[in-house]
């Protein structure tokens, strides 16, 4: 079903469109590569980050955390769906490796939605020697996710591909240090404001080791992340969309 949609419906849409708006240069380049006939139509307009994603007072953030998260225990955070390309199972294995190699007392928090189509993450948790250190949270309110961002020792997005990737941007806007993979548009979005690693368990574990015990590194990433996130806004995106519509309308 999805193969049909992406191979046929999108091809027809691209053929009929006067302009194609892509959320990143990586997506633009992928469109040009896979659909050469649309190459001259593509304009890049980055997504934004909502103003509600901002640093919180530490005490207030701790009070907003879900009950299953102990604010006294440092934690790494994953936010996103469980689709295989999100690579959360590799993060579970990376965290197991990180704990075994360092002896740290941290936790891994997975903020997502249970999806029976994708059992890989839960199989990885069941196989982990540190399963008691992994917290899965389902159906969170947005203010709880913002509090998690604000309190996390590190936010990790290990995706195998992203066309944009909002969670790292939201995390940076909340003042969280970010680790992300080197795939898709993620390096383009985070710039020099995040720790970038290959999306393998060994490489992710290595990035966690670097960031976990280095407060100076975390402070530097927080500062860079806040500046980077400030470059992305939905108002800016809306104005750039409006400029495309005006151009097409001859205004």
What is the topology?
Elements: H1 2-16, E1 20-22, H2 25-34, E2 42-44, H3 58-64, E3 75-79, H4 88-102, E4 107-112, H5 120-127, E5 134-138, H6 142-151, E6 154-157, H7 166-173, E7 178-181, H8 186-190, E8 195-197, H9 201-212, H10 215-229, H11 234-249
Parallel strand pairs: 1-2, 3-4, 3-6, 4-5, 6-7, 7-8
Q: What is the C-alpha radius of gyration, as a whole number of Å?
A: 19 Å
- Poorly predicted residue ranges: none
Strand order of the largest sheet: 5-4-3-6-7-8
Biggest beta sheet summary: 6 strands, parallel
Pairing-aware structural class of the strands and helices? alpha/beta
Instruction: List how many beta strands DSSP finds.
Output: 8
Distance between the termini: 40 Å
Provide the succession of SSEs.
Answer: HEHEHEHEHEHEHEHEHHH
Described by the principal axes of the CA atoms, the overall outline is: globular
**Strand percentage, roughly?**
5-15%
How many helices in DSSP terms? 11
Mean pLDDT: 96
